[in-house]
């Protein structure tokens, strides 16, 4: 079976260090790779970039970084408006903007809903990530961004090889497109894209101390999840669906049961929740 290159990005593993971004700049800025890409300009283009997503309200805040690059789609929107075969998909799945044929075709920039094509005003050329195809064709296993990622947040390889790490991740963890609604059949897929969370802090009212190891149960949307509060009395339920009403129960021996109904219209910080002893009736 022929190769089909793809990538799985684990957002939970991305620390926002920008090593991938810098590796892309190092490889492509000022470097021409005839047949693959013209040089990336020193400013204004980001063939891989990070989108920062901040969620919640103080003190329950989560910050995520989502690496964003061309997804080398099976149904590439960018090919539709390109003339003279200026954008094409290689047999291995990599989508290339031909640096000669694409000259003057500014319309290509706006055909990608992921907004990962950039216009080079000086060269009158649309440009984007080609997964370092020149590098792969020399026998290297990974694009430069993947090589440089210190946390293995980016996993690249042959999706058609069941023994590859990337194929294993797809089979076992079911990563998704960052925007499945575009319908482009992307081959850069994501794990742990931020969803909504419900968090809070359990406190013992009588002593005003954090309540550690208290079981908190969240139910809704067909799932039931349990966590125990940490040493600060904190609990988190992350990865929840948007706009969903959940029930949250807190029960500890000797204390009155607490039931709440958080709604994930946004991330929910329930604040301090006080456990009262049953004797306080
Ligand atoms: S992500 Fe955009 S530029 Fe990349 S292949 Fe898909 S449509 Fe084309
Ligand atoms: S190199 Fe890896 S950890 Fe650093 S920003 Fe890029 S994807 Fe995230």
Describe this structure in words.
- This protein is mostly beta strands.
- The chain has 2 domains: 5-191, Alpha-Beta Plaits (2-Layer Sandwich), CATH 3.30.70.20; 196-280, Immunoglobulin-like (Sandwich).
- It has 5 helices and 17 strands.
- The protein has helices spanning 19-28, 77-80, 133-136, 144-148, 165-173, and strands at residues 5-10, 48-57, 60-69, 87-89, 95-97, 118-120, 125-127, 154-158, 188-191, 196-204, 209-210, 215-220, 223-228, 234-240, 247-251, 258-260, 268-275.
- Strands 10, 11, 14 and 17 form a 4-stranded mixed sheet that branches. A 4-stranded antiparallel sheet has the order 13-12-15-16, with no helix packed on it.
- The mean pLDDT is 96.
- One iron/sulfur cluster binds at residues 14-20, 50, 65, 67, 148-149, 151, 153-154.
- CA-based shape: elongated
Name the helicity range: 10-25%
* Total number of distinct structural domains: 2
Which structural class do the helices and strands define?
mainly beta
CATH architecture of the largest domain, by name, is 2-Layer Sandwich
- Could you tell me the mean pLDDT? 96
Q: Radius of gyration, rounded?
A: 24 Å
Main pleated-sheet profile: 4 strands, mixed
Which stretches are poorly predicted, pLDDT < 50 over at least 5 residues?
none
Approximately how much beta-strand content do the residues carry? 25-35%
Tell me the span between the first and last alpha carbons: 70 Å
According to CATH, what is the topology of the largest domain? Alpha-Beta Plaits
């Amino acid at each position: 079976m022929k190769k089909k290159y793809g990538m799985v990005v684990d957002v939970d593993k991305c620390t926002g260090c920008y090593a991938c971004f810098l590796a892309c700049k190092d490889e492509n800025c000022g470097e021409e790779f005839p047949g693959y890409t013209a040089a990336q300009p020193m400013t204004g283009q980001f063939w891989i970039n990070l989108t920062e997503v901040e969620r919640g309200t103080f003190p329950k805040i989560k910050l995520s970084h989502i690496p964003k690059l061309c997804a080398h789609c099976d149904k590439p929107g960018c090919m539709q408006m390109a003339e003279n075969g200026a954008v094409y998909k290689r047999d291995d799945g990599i989508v290339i903007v031909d640096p000669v044929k694409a000259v003057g075709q500014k319309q290509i920039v706006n055909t990608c809903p992921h907004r990962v094509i950039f216009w080079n005003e000086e060269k009158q050329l649309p440009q984007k990530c080609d997964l370092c195809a020149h590098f792969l064709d020399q026998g290297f296993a990974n694009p430069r961004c993947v090589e440089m990622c210190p946390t293995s947040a980016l996993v690249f390889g042959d999706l058609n090889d069941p023994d590859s790490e990337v194929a294993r991740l797809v089979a076992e963890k079911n990563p998704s497109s960052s925007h499945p609604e575009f319908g482009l059949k992307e081959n850069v897929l994501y794990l742990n894209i931020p969803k909504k969370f419900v968090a809070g802090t359990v406190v013992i009212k009588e002593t005003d101390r954090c309540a550690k190891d208290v079981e908190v149960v969240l139910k809704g949307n067909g799932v039931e999840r349990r966590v125990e509060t940490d040493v600060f009395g904190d609990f988190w339920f992350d990865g929840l669906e948007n706009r969903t009403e959940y029930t949250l129960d807190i029960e500890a021996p000797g204390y009155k049961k607490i039931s709440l109904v958080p709604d994930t219209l946004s991330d929910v910080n329930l604040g301090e929740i006080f456990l009262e002893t049953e004797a306080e009736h």
